[in-house]
Design goal:
The structure is a homodimer. The first copy, chain A, has one domain: Na+/H+ antiporter like fold (Up-down Bundle), CATH 1.20.1530.20. Helices cover about 75% and strands about 0% of the residues of chain A. The first copy, chain A, contains 16 helices and no strands. The radius of gyration of chain A is 21 Å and the shape is globular. Chains A and B meet through helix 1, helix 3, helix 10 and helix 12 of A and helix 1, helix 3, helix 10 and helix 12 of B. Chains A, B: Belongs to the monovalent cation:proton antiporter 2 (CPA2) transporter (TC 2.A.37) family. Chains A, B: Keywords: Antiport, Ion transport, Membrane, Sodium, Sodium transport, Transmembrane, Transmembrane helix, Transport. Chains A, B: Its main location: membrane. Chains A, B: It is found in: Membrane.
């Protein structure tokens, strides 16, 4: 790709993101909703100004990594640790219910057992980016509710890994390998536990050493490099890179350099994060939503059913917290689906487990959960005083 | 390219850059020299940790764009305009002398007329990135000398364009098209003049409008987007993208938001700029410098000759300023050669105007000017009090 084309695409993305965000805020909506819609407008489906390319897609993924890193740095480690049990229960309920609901809806709709299991699995994993941005846009990223949702999304990711392994096992060998499941769970737990324990011991010492270096920007660059290597490590054990980035941020949030890193990462996030949300919007193919195309009808009906159970399953998960928090806020925060569901669906499509219309229905469900969450979450947050 | 591989490469680049920079500063050298050498070490020629890829190369180019944007924002518009006449004379002398010297050295060495003209042309254009970084590393980016060198490099780029057009004309049609030269000069002058005039009128109004927007980071993101679009525009008229980026920075330096943009661009530059210098180092093939390989001897001798006249021609250009400035500092600041010379050389090689060993000799000359400038420039700057 030519440098000019890249620079022009970045220009369009950034301007569209900020105009979209501004319009959204004018209508008292979170900026991220405006960015998503701006993405649809400039994307392939509509104006076609922003085309997907490897370069922009990688930048978008780095945007998601920086978003979660920033969320981690902004968090309070201690308050995050306090809610970790609730995060776990929310994650479990939020995986089990959508899975069961999805299975029965699909089965009732006439799909086979394997197909129905597969559809259920695509509903399980929360895509936390949207929720993080809404909490950020409204200045509530440090609230208990936000911390529980992020924690639950991390656990979610681990469970998602296990489910995928189980399903692949069932499909390829017809059986479930307990050893394989234990291995995956062990590796993920080892990474998360290890990262937090080693990180908490090593990070302050390493930062003290880095702090003695004098070259420009060294502290911030090392903090950012730490985020990158944690993202790589988490990908290496099979988790999403954003899990590692969040853990890196969380570890740094305990050091004395928290505020410095927080201040420096902000402009970097301002540039990178919109790329993620614009590209998320740009990937939406608006023609699927055309109700005048009869070919879409049965797909849209099934997508609507999936959407209903996807929302219901996650909403209920908020009530898995027995502490004094806003349960509805947590449930809504868990609603967005994203990459993990799409990865499942793409796997199913390429292995001929699910059909093309079924794949599109899952895609539509993901898009709907993404777009409805910001306005609903904002309405709930605003009815709830900050220190509840 | 896989996301993990990209993140790992970025990690290695950032850590290597900061360690290299730190070691350089320990030995009282500018950080940029350390980054270049760190690039050689981790690059393909040595450890092979950092491989070139489209993605990283584009990020490196964006790094150069951000470097010049930052230099522009940090500049004082009025003091830059005061030295513009001197920048022009330095550029002219600094183009003419290396061209003549290069021509005669090549001709004396037995090359044909066309070949000798070509070699002369590869010596003309200054690569300003290195010099900007040294002035930045030493806190002298606002000095008259720095402003003259940057201005001369901009003019340089325009002259480089014209020379390339002339040479291509001579080679393809055997004659020089005056109309073509006027067209190119006109477009470049139109862009630079137009950008500064329109920019100075439009930017404050636009920024006042943007300032009323409330969404997070909007002012900085629009400033950055302005840099991107100016880089695209300057590329469109045939100039280097960094010329447009510098002009964008210069325009913003006149607005009331100068300090805000300066503060916000810094962490972004901290991440991107090292990629440029590490990749510059990583592109160095150390095997060319092996004196024990007889195949290198004649090439290295010619490279040494080219290096000598390349340095001499630019050094003298410093004395084209009749004001009270440090002429040696300007001359040394003009020494580094880079992309433009390499683009010329690559064109010559692919059109069979110059031979492969000649191409390598030009490459070695570029590398030498790049690596010797930082220590020499630093020594001169430190002997010269800040307000001379």
């Amino acid at each position: 790709m030519e440098i000019s084309a890249v620079l022009l695409t970045l220009f369009i993305i950034l301007v569209a993101a900020k105009i979209g965000g501004e319009i959204a805020e004018y209508f008292k909506q979170p900026a991220v909703l405006g960015e998503l819609i701006a993405g649809v407008v400039v994307g392939v489906g509509a104006l076609g100004l922003v085309k997907e390319s490897d370069f922009i897609n990688i930048l978008a993924q780095i945007g998601a990594i920086i978003l979660l890193f920033e969320a981690g740095v902004t968090s309070e480690y201690e308050s995050f640790m306090k809610v970790k049990l609730w995060a776990f229960t929310v994650a479990c309920v939020g995986v089990v219910l959508p899975f069961i609901f999805g299975y029965f809806v699909s089965h009732y709709y006439g799909l086979g057992v394997i197909e129905s299991i597969f559809v259920g699995a695509t509903l399980t994993a929360t895509s936390v980016g949207i929720t993080v941005r809404v909490f950020q846009d409204l200045g509530r990223i440090k609230s208990k509710e936000a911390q529980i949702v992020i924690g639950a999304a991390v656990v979610d990711d681990v469970i998602g890994l296990i489910i995928l392994a189980v399903i692949i096992g069932i499909i390829t060998s017809g059986s479930v390998s307990v050893i394989n499941i234990l291995r995956i769970t062990g590796m993920a737990a080892f990474f998360l536990g290890g990262a937090l324990i080693v990180g908490n011991v090593a990070a302050p010492t390493l930062l003290k050493f880095v702090h003695q270096m004098r070259v420009r920007g060294v502290l911030f660059v090392f903090a950012f490099a730490f985020c990158l290597i944690m993202a790589v490590a988490s990908q290496a054990v099979g988790l999403a890179p954003i899990v590692g980035a969040f853990a890196a941020g969380l570890i740094l949030s305990r050091t004395e350099h928290k505020e410095h890193v927080e201040r420096q990462i902000k402009p970097v996030a301002d540039i990178f994060v919109p790329i993620f949300f614009i590209m998320m919007g740009a990937a939406v193919n608006v023609s699927y939503f055309n109700p005048f195309n009869p070919a879409n009808h049965s797909m849209l009906v099934f997508a609507a059913l999936l959407f209903a159970v996807a929302v219901a399953g996650k909403l209920i998960s908020g009530w898995a917290v027995f502490a004094r928090v806003n349960k509805l806020m947590i449930g809504v925060g868990m609603m967005p689906r994203g990459e993990v569901g799409l990865i499942f669906a793409a796997y199913g499509l390429s292995h001929k487990i699910i059909s093309q219309p079924l794949y599109v229905a899952i895609l539509v469900m993901v898009i709907l959960t993404t777009f409805v969450t910001p306005p609903i979450l904002k309405a709930i947050i605003q009815r709830c005083p900050p220190n509840s």
